[in-house]
Amino acid sequence: MSTTTLAAPVTARGAVNPWLVAFAVVLPTFMEVLDTTIANVALRYIAGGLSTAETDSEWVITSYLAANAVVLTISGWISARMGRRNYFLLSIAVFTLASGLCGMATSLSQIIFFRIIQGLAGGGLQPSSQAILIDSFPPEKQGVAMSIFGIAALIGPIVGPTLGGWLVVNYDWRWIFYINLPVGLLAFGASYFLVHDPQYLVDERKQICSQPFSFDYIGFSLLTLIMSSWEILLSKGQEWDWLGDPFLRIQALLTIFVVGIILFIVRELSTSKPLVDLRVLNNRNLLVSVIVLFSAFCVLYAASIALPAMLQALFGYDALHAGLVLSPGGISSISMLLIVGMLLGRGVDARYLIATGLIVLATSNFWMAYLNLLVSPTQVVWPRMVLTAGLGLIFAPINVAAYMYVPPHLRGSAIALVSLFRNEGGSVGTSLSQTIQQRRDQFHLSRVNEFLDPLNPYVTSYVDQTKQLFYQLTGDTHSAQQMALQSLDNLRQQQALSLAYFDVFWLAAILGIALVPLVFLMKPTVAAKGSHIAAD
Q1: Which of 159-173, 240-254, 455-469 is predicted least confidently?
Q2: Angle (CA) 480 486 492, round 5°
Q3: Domains of the chain, residue spans
Q4: Nearest to 144 by CA among 283, 7, 21
Q5: Assigned CATH class of 1-215
Q6: Residue 258 has pLDDT above 90, yes or no
Q7: Cβ 504 vs Cβ 381: under 8 Å
Q8: Which end of the chain is more exposed for a tag (fewer CB within 10 A), N or C?
Q9: Which has the closest alpha carbon to 397: 535, 527, 204?
Q10: What is the 3-state secondary structure (H, E, C) of 354-401?
Q11: Same fold for the pair 1-215 and 283-432+498-536
Q12: Ranked by mean pLDDT, which of 40-49, 197-206, 225-234, 335-344 comes out on top?
């Protein structure tokens, strides 16, 4: 076993204050992460504004996620050849321009096309900003750097539904895209003056440019096929009845995805110049971190999709008020990120923080699974704040653990893979939440029906009492009878739907707890100044 010193930051930190750099790179990251969720609450408004079906408007989300996923994976390759600063600035500029074009779209096909451009540009923002932060702060402050990045990556999904709901209710759906314009311009200006490539990247780029151009066209084609089929599969799976799809669309997409994954892995491991260096996953810490982060974001998005949907479907909240209930979670998330940054800087092992965060994440979901239909908004806010606090505990430590043992020349591939799996965890969580809710709703409806028969004294008592009430209001015996039965049916559907949402929280809680033992497969991870780290 050899020893490797944690790579010191290689930027000229004396020239530019790292906190100013952090501000410059966090802005576009927040903007991009926000765009992955802000459009979710506006789909029916977009469909209405463009005179299309709401199910077709889902392509606004799917097209963005598919394009984003493709570029996330190859962002390291592009950055190495263009220069990280140049690529970051280009991504900001194109993303901002595409946002404006999305707002001006006059048809569904136009907005889908512009969303693809937006997704392609946005895919370079997260990995680049994360890499810039890692290089800008010294080893003992890596936890602080990841906490800063976490503020953007975690607050975006929390603020997105609230901000999107407020804009579409008070203004117009187009403003969910126009809002990116001032943020993008500010981010571009700040990054242009503050962000510079470290010397090792400059040398690496010179070396690459001195060699004949080489691009893995086969790997890129396979990657595009894989991510496109995967995102469509997740987006349309429930609508098309998954493997029960009579038109075999899901079966075909799944086959393309599985075969594509196998061919892609074989291709990338056999070529001398891979598009994505999958060998970086030989690093145990990185591999475990990818799995845990993927699953944690799956839990976050599953709960984050189910909770506002439940509030709207069962409690009568609109998109804005449902978002307001979720918003206080940002306070606990930011607070925990700041605390965790200090703890990591003082030498606390990241594994213990990650494990604690997973337990807190699971606890919050167990809490939400025991809610009922009589809860007040305050009683929903607290478990939500616990949920985001748990994710705040996880995010910075797991990013420190993921990259601590990765050599600088492989850092681009590592960051791209972590960013990809983090985003895809959110996509899987969203799809999983919707599928479980709809399937379990049908299950609970059938179970509730088992007890609704004329021989059940509670049923007859309820119908008789409500019938008398409606008779007093209408004076019509037949109408009162029908209204009483309708009231019973409404109650049946309400109870079944609430149980379905609670099942989503149960599954999320179980997944969170199941991840805890996995954390201790990592090597000890202490980001202390001058520390020496054992390499595999």
Answers
A1: 159-173
A2: 140
A3: 1-215, 217-274, 283-432+498-536, 445-494
A4: 21
A5: mainly alpha
A6: yes
A7: no
A8: N
A9: 527
A10: HHHHHHHHHHHHHHHHCCCCCCCHHHHHHHHHHHHHHHHHHHHHHHHH
A11: yes
A12: 225-234
- How large is the average pLDDT for residues 114-139? 86
Indicate left, alpha or beta for 241 from its phi (over 0: left) and psi (-120 to 50: alpha): left
**Residue 267, amino acid:** R
- Compute CA distances 350 → 353, 354, 357, 396, whole Å: 5, 6, 11, 9
Between the alpha carbon of residue 57 and those of residues 49, 115, 253, 305, 394, the distances in Å are 11, 12, 20, 18, 34
Write the CATH number of the domain with boundaries 283-432+498-536: 1.20.1250.20
* Range of lowest pLDDT (84-88, 202-206, 518-522): 202-206
- Residue 394 in this model has a pLDDT that exceeds 50: yes
Q: Report the amino acid identity of residue 45.
A: Y
On the question of pLDDT at 32 being above 90, the answer is: no
Give Cβ neighbours of residue 376 (< 8 Å, ≥ 6 apart): none
The two structure tokens encoding residue 163:
């901000």
* pLDDT tier for residue 15 given thresholds of 50, 70 and 90: low
- Residue 533: strand pairing partners: 4
